[in-house]
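REVIEWER CHECKLIST
Item 1: Sequence provided? yes
Item 2: Single chain? yes
Item 3: Sequence as submitted:
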Amino acid sequence: MIRRVTGTTAGMALLIGLTACGGGSDKAADATTLTYWMFQDRTPQATEVVEKIRADFEKANNVTVKIVKIPKDDYNTKLGSAVASGTVPDVGVLDQPLVARYALDGTIQEMPAGTIDEKTYYEGALNTNRVDGKLYGLPIDHTAVALFYNKKFVPTPPKTWDELKQMTAKIHQDDPKTAGMVVPKGDGYGAWMWPGFVAGAGGSMVDEKDKKILFDQQPGVDALQLWVDLLPSSPRNITDSDKAFENGLAGMMVSGPWDVANIKDQFPDLDFGTAPLPYKTQPGGNIGGENAVVFSKGKNADLAWKWLKHLTNSENNTKLAQALGGFPTNIEAAERDAADFGPDQAAFLEQLKVAQARPALPQWIQINDEIIAPTIESALSGKVTSQQALSDAADKTRALLGWTG
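Item 4: Structure as written out by the authors:
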C-alpha cells in the first residue's frame, strides 16, 4: 500500500486487545456490536477523526463499534492468522492488491446489490474492489503519484512526453552537473508507478476477463522506452545521490503526496511545484490506498456494510481520508473540499480522476516485484530493448498465471 503523509509528527494510538476480534458468545451483544480492524493511527489527529466518526455511527444506530488498531507492519500477518482460525472481525481494512485473493477464496463477501450508487465514487478507486466484475468492498482512501518540479529549472511543467524529454535535455545541457529528472528505477516502487505511464499512452496492464497480457503491447513499450530515453539527460551518477531532487541536483522527479510534507519540512528553501504526469495520448495515472471489506465469517454483515457506507459518505470521507494519509474516494466529498488540499495537493487529485486500478489478480504483488520490476531495470541498464524486455516479462507472467494470451 502507498499512502500520503500529511505531516511528520507521529502519534501512537492505543492498541485494542486482539482477543476482541473473535466476538463473544452473547447473541444479543453480537447483534449490536461491530468489530472493525484498521491500521494503527499515525497521528493524534487521526485518532480524533476516527473516534468522532465512530461516535456518530453508534449514536445513530444504537450499536457499539469495537475498533481494533493494529500496526501496519503486523496487520496482514494477524489478519492471515484470524482468517486461518476463523476468528475474523466483521469488517476490516485491506490493502488493494489483497482484495482479489480474499474474494476468490471466499474470505470476503460480495457487496449486496443496491448498497451504493457507484457513480458517487471515483471509478479507479472503486475498481480496486472489483473482481470478475463484482464488488467486494469500498475504497476508504486512495493516492497516486505526480510530477514534482524545481521552479528554478522548470518554470512551466511539461504536459506531454515530448515536452518532458525536451525539458530534461535542456536542464542537463545548461548544467551537466544537474540531471533533468530522477528517472524511476526497476524496483517494486518503480513497477508500481510505471502503469501510470502505460495508461498515459492509452494502454492497460492486463485483460483479466479474456486472460490476456497487455503490458508488452505498444503503449507499454512506449512507456518503458520513455524512461530509457530520459536517462542520457538524467544520469544515474547524479540521481543516485541522496535526495537528488530535494538538494537541487535534478529538475524533476515522480513521487507521491507524502513528499510534499517531507520537502516542506526538510527543505523549506526549495521552490517546487507539482503537476499531473505528462502523457503521450491521454491523461493517466496509477493508484494506491486502502479498502475496507466485510468478512464472510463475520457476524453482522448488514451492519458492516452500513458502517462502510458511513465511512465513505460525503460527510465523513474527506476527513477520514486525510487522517489516514490519502485522498477521498467519494467524488462529492473530494470536490467540495478540494480547496483545503492546497495547491501542491491539487495535482494528485487530478491524477486520481484518471487513475487505473491494479489488475485484480491474487498474484499481482509477485508479478509487480519479481517480474515487472527487474524487467524495467534490464531495459534501463541497456541490456535488452524495451520490447524484448517486456516480451520476456509477458511470457513469464503467462506461465505464472497459466494463461495463453
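Item 5: Key structural point noted by reviewer: Residues 44-61 form the longest helix (18 residues).
Item 6: Recommendation: ____
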